[in-house]
Design a protein that fits this description.
Elements (H helix, E strand, L loop, with lengths): L1 H12 L5 H7 L2 H14 L8 H16 L11 H10 L1
Length: 87
């Protein structure tokens, strides 16, 4: 709860409001991507080395990307980018 409050105040301080701010404060989109990636590459059991693992994960992310939807509040993203550049 304390982490979420800190993040919420950081987002507010940057001037991001509305639907985009609620999307940024949560980690749901990252968790969703990770679960889709697990389903996509869950059967791969033998990893030779770190490079091979990175290749499989990258390929899986490209595959999973096709099912992504545009985040609600995306139109406010330019304000967020500008605020981050100012910081």
């Amino acid at each position: 709860m304390r982490d979420a409050i800190d993040d919420m105040f950081s987002v507010r301080r940057l001037g991001v409001a509305g639907t985009l701010s609620t999307r940024i404060v949560t980690t749901n989109c990252i968790e969703s991507m990770n679960s889709m990636l697990r389903r996509s590459r869950g059967r791969v059991t033998k990893w030779k080395d770190g490079t091979m693992k990175k290749r499989w994960i990258s390929a899986g992310m490209l595959e999973v990307e096709l099912s992504f939807r545009r985040a609600r509040g995306y139109k406010g993203m330019d304000k967020l980018v500008d605020a981050l550049h100012r910081e």
